[in-house]
Design brief:
With about 350 residues, the chain is α+β, with helices and mostly antiparallel strands. It has helices at about 10-20, 40-50, 130-145, 175-185, 215-220, 230-240, 245, 255-260, 325-330, 345-355; strands at about 25-30, 30-40, 65-70, 80, 95-100, 100-105, 110-115, 120-125, 150-155, 155-160, 165-170, 190, 195-200, 205, 215, 255, 270, 275-280, 285-290, 335-340. It folds into three domains: about 10-145, no CATH class; about 150-215 and about 255-355, Rossmann fold, CATH 3.40.50; about 215-255, no CATH class.
């Protein structure tokens, strides 16, 4: 199938007419009803299992998404490559803009994502790339929140009682691992990697996305209760590795929160009562704890400020400026911010975070 010609909305209409999507479910994300329809019953069932804590009865949806499982489509458009993230070399995504929307293509899988004018569609080998579909659904919710005035943060989030804590840091700093250690100590989970922050009354509210943590074997073996994520042979193999070698193993596993921590432990909104920035450098030396003052330490906020990426405009003819670091500093001016530097130590990091949550 060749997908060409017309506006973004016309292209989406063409896909829907050729590949109907009759199988539906409704998700409730922090006051936002998301209606998802799929051409594949198997994909719908996989999504219902993944999002099971967020399934809800139907109602007027704020976001409608259709998923169309097919072969990789031919799309004769001029795509612009997205520059790789810092430290990376491979181009993974490219995009083409229309006056009424955008098309994003994943180079490795050929998946296409079209959105604009309140419409959202994915087409391609969806069933074989469920994780990309899950990310797209969550991205559409993120856009909905950002258009209501939230700032996007790169961080994990947990909550204990009426206090919530965000954990920020560059990729690989240990945000998810620290959040899971806090879960093992009794906290509830808010988000794995993305947080939308907004003012709520006299304080701040953080909102996460319905994405389960994805961790490496080293984390599964060190966080209490997660070793069962690996089979007996895998556990034995990884436990036999030197710790410095184990830390380099990249083999991602989903951690379904409801399965390992019980129902009701995954919520999407919580007060934002504090922020921890992970600035660790290796292991072996003591962790250093330092309270930061805003906006004097605005430079470190770059670890929390998050670019919206390709899944949020502007499109052709639009001029939307990204928030500045000063905007993040102003928003977080009254929130306690702590930096953890020195050696990476999750036991010490957990103690610091629990102390902030119990204030």
């Amino acid at each position: 199938m060749i997908l060409s010609g017309g506006t973004c909305r016309e292209l989406m209409a063409r896909v829907r007419s050729r590949i109907p999507a009759p199988h539906g479910l409704t998700l409730g994300f922090a006051g936002c009803l998301v209606q998802v329809t799929s051409s594949s019953r198997g994909l719908k069932e996989a999504l219902a299992d993944y999002f099971q804590e967020f399934l809800c009865d139907g109602g007027p949806p704020a976001v409608r998404i259709s998923l169309h499982d097919s072969e990789v489509l031919s799309v004769p458009f001029a795509f612009a490559p997205k520059a790789p993230s810092p430290g990376k070399t491979r181009v993974k995504e490219e995009w083409a803009d229309f006056p009424d929307g955008r098309m994003v293509r994943k180079r490795l899988t050929g998946m296409l994502f079209l959105f604009g004018g309140g419409e959202h569609l994915a087409v391609g080998p969806c069933r074989a790339n469920t994780n990309q579909v899950i990310n797209f659904i969550n991205n559409r919710f993120i856009e909905w929140k950002l258009r209501k005035g939230s700032l996007l943060g790169h961080g994990a989030g947990v909550v204990a009682g009426d206090r919530g804590l965000a954990v920020a840091g560059v990729s690989g700093a240990g945000k998810s691992t620290l959040a899971l250690h806090l879960m093992a100590a009794g906290a509830r989970f808010v988000s794995n990697d993305r947080l939308m922050v907004t003012r709520r009354g006299a304080g701040l509210e953080m909102c996460g996305v319905a994405k389960h943590p994805r961790i490496n074997p080293g984390t599964a073996l060190t966080v209490p209760g997660l070793s069962g994520l690996l089979g007996p042979r895998e556990r034995a193999r990884f436990r036999a590795m030197p710790r410095d070698v184990l830390r380099t193993v990249e083999e991602k596993h989903d951690v379904p929160i409801h399965r390992f921590f019980g129902p009701g432990r995954f919520i999407l909104t919580a007060p934002l009562s504090g922020l921890v920035i992970l600035n660790w450098a290796g292991t072996g030396s003591p962790t250093v704890v330092r309270s930061l003052e805003m906006p004097r330490d605005v430079r470190l906020l770059s670890a929390f400020a998050k670019d919206t990426g390709l899944f949020y405009g502007p499109f052709q003819g639009q001029d939307t400026k990204a928030p500045t670091l000063s905007a993040y500093a102003d928003l977080l001016a009254k929130v306690p911010v702590v930096e953890l530097s020195g050696g990476r130590d999750f036991v010490q990091g957990t103690k610091v975070c629990l102390a902030m949550l119990s204030l």
